Amino acid sequence: MKLFLTCPKGLELLLEEELHHLGINDTKQTVAGVQCHGELEDAYKICLWSRLANRVLMPVYEGDAETTEELYESVQQINWLDHMRSEGTLLIDFSGQTRAINNTHFGALKVKDAIVDQIRDLTGARPSIDKIAPDLRINVRMHRGKVTVAIDLSGDSLHRRSYRLKAGQAPMKENLAAAVLIRSGWPARVSELDLLLDPMCGSGTLLIEAAMMAGDVAPGLQRKRYGFSRWTGHQKGIWDELIADAKARKAKGLLQLEVSLVGRDEDKQVLRSARQNAERAGVSEFIEFSACRLEDLSRDSLPEGVGLLVTNPPYGERLGETQQLMFLYRHLGDKLKAQFAGWTAAIFTSNPDLCKVMGMRADKQYKLFNGALESRLFVYPISEKRAEVESAEVVEQKPLSDGAQMFANRLLKNKKQLSKWIKRENIECYRLYDADIPEYSVAVDMYGDEVHVQEYAAPKKIDPVKTFSRLQEVMSALPVALGVPTEKVILKQRKKQQGSNQYEKHSETHRFKEISEHGCRLLVNLHDYLDTGLFLDHRPIRYRIQQESAGKDVLNLFCYTGTASVHAAKGGARSTTSIDMSATYLNWAKRNLALNGFDASAHEQVQEDCLKWLRMQRTAAYDMIFMDPPTFSNSKRMEGVLDVQRDHVDMIDAAMRLLRKDGVLYFSNNYRRFKIDQDSLSDYKIEDITHSTLDPDFKRNSRIHVCFRISHR
Predict the structure, then answer these.
(1) pTM beyond 0.70
(2) What is the pLDDT of residues 46-70, one digit of tens each?
(3) Which residues in 172-193 are b (16+ Cβ under 10 Å) and which e?
(4) Total structural domains within the chain
(5) Residues 86 and 110 in one domain
(6) Domain range spanning residue 14?
(7) Which listed site, 55, 148, 360, 526, has its alpha carbon 20 to 30 Å from 489?
């Protein structure tokens, strides 16, 4: 019979070689697949043993078809009672198009009609559609006036081995993992290796596939159902013999498996999934999983011998920004050169630029596709001589580069200029540097003895490797210039924030740090969020609120972590009301107030869309209002979209309705091109106080925010 096997792009050659290994030699590669000829037993063997194929299709009709009528007639050329019961179930997979059929759903419907009509005319019964577990899965493809109708003998895609119920972020498909292993030299070199290591193993797919390959375990042995299971042409005796043989080979292969398989990952939860997946695959006793950060990985903590390191590290925006990931790849390269001489490393990534910073030369690289993403597998043999040469820069403590020294000099200059002010005002948290040198586009903030670095996202036209090199110079200069340990320098990337992105976590350390500002105790978190919980540029307006709030009712809109409310309470406010959409930030505000010993009954937090809340209020109940809206927000939790330039008149009008006769509204935002509409707000007295709300650490960047004092005339 003729068969067509589908596979991910880039795997065609490997799949053809795999077929030859299975004894099927009449083969021909096509795009994303291989054609072959064989017996039914060969088709079964592919379903059971192929580690690379997605589907095994058995064509039952090929002919000309362009119109819906010709498609219908073509499908009716097949005697469908040879393939299914009259009251069975079916599912149609339709691909391709013609001038008459340009919708796959419509094409599938016409195929279904042809099959149902034929069986109903012959038997009076009719089959039905089952999208979950059909008796017969049918694949139809139309291309350039030709139609091919095939029985899908695999059923569900063969990459689903039935062992992986849970996976981490961005999981690698099992057949792609098998291809990566084969290209890395596994299991061909298993006899000369002592160890296979994945230092960022996630849900364990690479290690499980490696164990199954080395242990001669058929990848389809765990599956309970195939496309041929209820096909009327199924020959159970042949299949049962293949299963019995596969079970015997598995028992023998695992008994002889001696190589150590080791998985490391810093996420303990995903490691639990990895262990469960390995257990379902029947190879858990051969893989040792344990929690370990890449930076803590040591050759001494692993079994002895020479091995293969193969891994699929994070590669893009879903799991972290490219610039931050470059540090991970550079660290991986340094560790390989310093500790893994004699090994082979195979790094698979969908962002090849990341591997450029590893400082290593790949002897081989292969193009593979991770879904639609064009990816690369880089294979690095690490010889003793190469490791010595390439790790020299790791071992030697080199002086700062010219660029890093220039950046360090600017830091020291800024610190000297601010030193008297810092000492006089007893300032603990301040901005030390804000993209003063265009090539080093970062903001550097001091939080006591820790340094918070925000990298501004570079334009896409800038070479990411060059951008990373400059960021490395920044990170190397900071500990030297400021005299702080490397682990106390925290890096984040700032890009344009929209909607709920401002609330998204970067990590989850729960490491809060207490700082002091004008007698107020405040909690900051330098690790988990893009912003730390304290807008440093608002320090002067917070202090002004503190000085003016005695005996007043204060409203804090878009309150964030409630720091302005704390200052108002510290200044003797009769009450504070803090409004924000984020439960996370309101809880933070509550903690800040409690930290300063303020009675919760006088200080209310309300989780609400501020614009919606303002529209619902009618009573002038406040003596002071602080409003600091975002520049733009389209959060799903809001009604509509907030644009501060467009909406500020309505916001100010709504807030002024709530302000008592002699009260004051402080209105601030950080839109750099903001222009207040004086004409539309002519009923109020408006004073631009921006200059007086900028402390010396923000005088270099006077456009960091605008601030207005607004009162009734």
Answers:
(1) no
(2) 999 999 999 999 999 999 999 999 9
(3) bbbbbbbbbbbbbbbbeebeeb
(4) 4
(5) yes
(6) 2-152
(7) 360
